[in-house]
Amino acid sequence: MVPSSYSLFPIPYSLYYTLLIKQNLLNYFVKTLLYIFVFIYWPASGLAQFQADSLQVHTLLRKGGQAARTAQYDSARYYYTMALEFSQQMNYPYGIMSSTMGYGLVHHFQREPDEALEYYLQALEMTRSGMDLTYPDIELLYNNLGGVYIDLGYRLKAKQYLEKALQLKELNNIAPISAAITHYNLGLINLYFGEYQSALHHFMTAYPGYLEHYGENGARVAQLYTNMGNIHEKLGNIEQAEQYFQRGIAIHLENHGPGYWNLAYPYTNLGALYVSTGRKAQALNYYLKSLDLCQKDRKELIRLEALNHGALAQYYLGEDNYQLSRSHANQAIAIMQEAFYSEHPRISEFYTTIGQTYAEQGDFEQARAWFDRAIALTVKGYGEVHPQLARLYLEQSRIYYQTGNHPKSLNFAQLALKSLDDSFEPTNPMDNPKPDKVLSERLLIQIVKHKADVYQAHANKENRMENLNSALEQYRLAALVVDHLRRGYLSESAKLFLQNNASEIYQQGIAVSYQLYHLNRDETYLAQAFFFMEKSKSSVLSEALQDAALTAVQGVDPAVIQQESHLHQLVKSLEIKLADAQLEENDSSQTLLKRDLFRARARVDSLENAIRANYPHYHQLKYDTQVLTLEKATAQIPDKALALSFFEADSSWYLLALARKESACYQVSKTTLPIDSINRFRQNLSNPESDPNQILSDGNLIYRALLQETLEKFDGIKELIVLPDGLLNYLPLGALSILSGDTESDPHYLVQDYAISYRNSLTLQSSLPRGYSYQQLYVGFAPNYEGEAHQLTLREPLSPLKGARAEVERAGSLFKGSQFLDQQATEHEFKNNNTSAAILHLAMHAQIDDEDPMRSRLLFTRESDTLEDGSLNAYEIYQLSLDAELAVLSACNTGIGKINKGEGVMSLSRAFMYAGCPNIVMSLWQAQDQATGQIMYTFFENLKKGLPKHEALQEAKLHFLASADPYKAHPANWATFVLLGDHQPLSRPNKPWLWIGLAALTLVLAGLYWQQRRKKLRSRDE
Questions:
Q1: Segment 479-515, tens digit of pLDDT
Q2: pTM for this one?
Q3: What's the CA gap between 805 and 783, in Å, rounded?
Q4: Which of 546, 538, 600 is CA-nearest to residue 568?
Q5: Which residues are within 8 A (CB) of 838 and not within 5 positions of it... i.e. 6 or more apart?
Q6: Which residues pair with 888 in a beta bridge?
Q7: What is the edge-to-edge ordering of all strands in the sheet holding 871-873?
Q8: What are phi and psi of 350, to 5 degrees?
Q9: Residue pair 480/433 in contact by the 8 Å Cβ criterion
Q10: Phi, psi of 2 (to 5 degrees)
Q11: Which 3 state secondary structure label does DSSP give 686?
């Protein structure tokens, strides 16, 4: 990433004059007139004379500054020269110093940092001679020195002067924009030194001042956005980084057009971002656009030209084109040395790329030599603590790992960790710094995982148990640092991206835990395997639900939580509007909404930065990522129930079987259970025309490979709690065939022996609410699609669901609940139905978008809805508050979606869970309309009888199988529906009036009883 580094005054310039005015006769003519003017009006009094003279100096200095800031550099020199001559004549130290600093300012604006530094240092020397200067003047000089040292690459000196400037600002009443500029420059310094959180803090502190002073479309604001994007990219917050880069580009294009030199910076940064996310074609396009701008204006952008060649070198390294990669790296080195000096610290990045090309080709000796050169240059330029140095030590460590020198590999890994935290003093290779102390948590994760890999490899050579335990400890730490890093991410997409990248850590942690368990049968390692499995399942969803539940925290200003909630709602609202505008292909509306959405997200970014700094406890609570211990998890498993937690690794499946008093772990090779067999089984399951014999055969193969040993070990089990992973998310285990029979005449399915339910994770399930309270038991929706044509992918008309209306009518009458049928079953009615119900029943069509899961949707009646479009998108469901214990999504594919490795399926059911439905009946493929109606009605009857939810669904399927003819008994018609959630029976509605009535009736009856009793007593006495 490339900071927009012309830091202090990043404005465009052009020369308005080709000759210096002081070399022109006009200069002498104007000077003479000025002298005459001054002497004619010069006051007789010496003090008055000095005051008038100093006033004239200040006027000239002000005009010089204005000319410099509007790129009239020769005019600026003229005014500063006049001010200097007047100041020397009257022996006015302030004027002499300020004029000298003004000369430096002109050179600074003209991108001549060496000349600028010379004048700034002269001015600094004057301040030390005892002259009486005000704080703002010294602060400005410090700021200017910091800025020019940034441009020269002397970051440490720049940081020293900028921190001095900031100290003076805090002690005195300085203009907001002056303080904002200093914070901006300090942000740049921290960015260069890898202090990313500090950099983000300074940029966010500068942000309000920049907006107020320069306006939201100002060029300097655009540069601030570019650097904020840099920070978010470094922190791994990819979506936000892209938004900041794109907003900066939009401002530059709007103000100056496509040829503007300042566009080169965000273009380069966007290219690097696209490389990291695998969008290589887009990356190359932006690199070349930036390079083209650089070559058109080399004076302005020669440093960036070098960095672009460095970026292209990395690009071609990723394409395995090592020769072209080295060519671009060498060009970058030559340009940087020409523009600056031979030992500029950023040259180390290009040395690193060259070393990486040799490492990839197996020439480790050459690679080490280039890495050593890069290390020496990095230490000289940045010191002993910097992310670039950590990366280089990690590269050296990887070379020794590849060559089998594990001790030396670990030594270099420790040096890499030391480069991230100067307070870290390792005493042995197992030591690691604390996540909140390091410069880059992303690098910490990489280094710690690499150490774990080294220990795991070394276990194959010696000290097997000891080294495997060391590897396990490192993998566990890496997983915890992933949690720590995820707290800094604001968007769900960024969190999901991180989870996907962390899946290898979870995989290796499970693999090592399994190895250790089978070496000594110590159940401690089952607990470790469970830890990694839980980390790999729905961590992002768990955090989101936990965050949504935090409405008040002791010690936190309620206004802060309220503002946070308001901003998040605003962002989501704008996201929905933008998605709708994109669907309608409304370009002008999209432009406005993108701008508003960017503003709202920037406000969220700013608030989150403040919360992190001012309310660390609240920030910690929002992202508490502790998983259940194995002991607590098994304590929650019912008697005669077995939890089956799966993990799909590269070459095998892992299964952790958990019962209340016993646990076990299994590994199944993918050669034993091929992916093709699972895919074929699922395809046949969902096709009612497929061969049932093939289904039985494949189902039995999967059963024997995946479950037979486990289920035979755990005797007396009646209930299975399934925590799937990978492809198993698409597989209803109830359709597996237990017996080896291969004919249709005697099929025996797993559902006939076990009541089966599914969970996202046991940790998530344990955090969901208990003890529900509702006004009624049931609300159902069954749209009518007669004559309607929803805007689907092919814009085809929807087939009517004749059984859906009957399904809702029968269920509604069963529970005496609300029914919205045909024209009443609109999206608007659904969103505005405020009656809480235990069951939310949606019998309708659904459309799944695997490319963009947020655009998956349920389709309501459209024609009678004047306020909504009839398509309830997943992103809209996330914004709803659905107070329902059970959502029955009697629609096609509601449990299907894109699998995010490390998180799970991004389905409509996930959206409903986020919206407040902890239990969901969902479908895994399109079911036959009539069969669905039969199964659903029986399911609802069973719920009303008080059966647990999973048993109610099991009995409904068995009832259907018992009564269906052979054709309808095909698994395609009954196996699609699965329960995601708990096994408890359905709660009853909260009817306080009923209890009041019963209490009143009891009192009346009691009164009548005592009245009759008193009559009897009286008659007896008489």
A1: 988 887 777 665 666 677 777 788 999 999 999 999 9
A2: 0.75
A3: 8
A4: 600
A5: 772, 774, 776, 777, 778, 884, 885, 886, 986, 987, 988, 989
A6: 841, 921
A7: 845-847, 857-859, 871-873
A8: -75, -35
A9: no
A10: -120, 115
A11: coil
Closest Cα to residue 196, out of 137, 148, 237, 154?
237
Residue 846: per-residue pLDDT: 85
φ, ψ of residue 329 to 5 degrees: the values are -65, -40
CB–CB of 397/450 below 8 Å? yes
Of 316, 314, 272, give the one whose Cα is nearest residue 290. 272
Ramachandran angles phi, psi of 978, nearest 5°: -135, 155
**Residue range 203-261, pLDDT digits in tens:** 888 888 888 888 888 888 999 999 989 888 877 778 788 888 999 999 999 898 988 88
Cα separation of 301 and 69, whole Å? 20
Tokens 């659905």 belong to which residue?
882
**Which residues fall within 8 angstroms of residue 804, CB to CB, at 6 or more apart?**
782, 783, 843, 844, 890, 929, 933
Which DSSP category does 808 fall into? H
User: Cβ distance 936 to 974 under 8 Å?
Assistant: no
Q: Which of 167, 202, 242, 241 is nearest to 609 (CA)?
A: 202
Structure token pair of residue 753: 């022996």
* 755 phi and psi angles, rounded to 5 deg: -85, 125
User: Reduced to 3 states, what is the DSSP secondary structure of residue 329?
Assistant: helix
DSSP category for residue 14:
-
* pLDDT over 60 at 302, yes or no: yes
C-alpha to C-alpha distance for 164 and 448, rounded to whole angstroms: 37
CB 911 within 8 A of CB 877: yes
Are 891 and 842 in contact, with CB atoms under 8 Å apart? yes
What is the rounded CA–CA span in Å between residue 915 and residue 882? 6
Cα(338)–Cα(2) distance, rounded to whole angstroms? Answer: 19
> How would you write 152-182 as a 3-class SS string?
HCCHHHHHHHHHHHHHHHHHCCCCHHHHHHH
Torsion sign, CA atoms 488, 493, 496, 498? negative
**Measured CA distances, 491 to 237, 377, 575, 579, 666 (Å):** 8, 37, 12, 16, 36
What backbone phi and psi angles, to 5 degrees, belong to 246?
A: -65, -35
H or E stretch including 906?
A: strand 904-907
Q: E strand or H helix at 755, and its extent?
A: strand 755-758
Q: What percent of the chain has pLDDT over 90?
A: 34
- Residue 6 makes CB contacts below 8 A (sequence gap 6+) with 111, 151
Which residues lie below 8 Å from residue 510, measured CB to CB, with a gap of 6+?
529, 532, 533, 647, 649, 654
Rounded CA-CA distance 570/604 in Å is: 10
Written as one string, the DSSP assignment of 194-262 is T-HHHHHHHHHHHHHHHHHHH-TT-HHHHHHHHHHHHHHHHTT-HHHHHHHHHHHHHHHHHHH-TT-GG
Instruction: Look over the chain and give the mean of its residue pLDDT values, rounded to a whole number.
Output: 81
Burial class (CB in 10 A: 0-12, 13-18, 19+), 1008: exposed
The string of DSSP codes covering 930-948 is: HHHHHHHHHHHHHHHHT-B
Reading the block at residue 72, the tokens are 């009239």
H or E stretch at 888:
strand 886-890
138-195: pLDDT as tens digits: 778 888 888 888 777 676 777 788 878 777 765 555 667 777 888 888 888 778 766 7
Nearest to 1 by CA among 242, 205, 206: 242
The closest alpha carbon to 843, from 861, 829, 828, belongs to 861
In sign, the C-alpha dihedral spanning 176, 182, 184, 186 is: negative
Q: Output phi, psi for 787, to 5 deg.
A: 75, 5
**Does the structure show a pLDDT above 90 at 718?**
yes
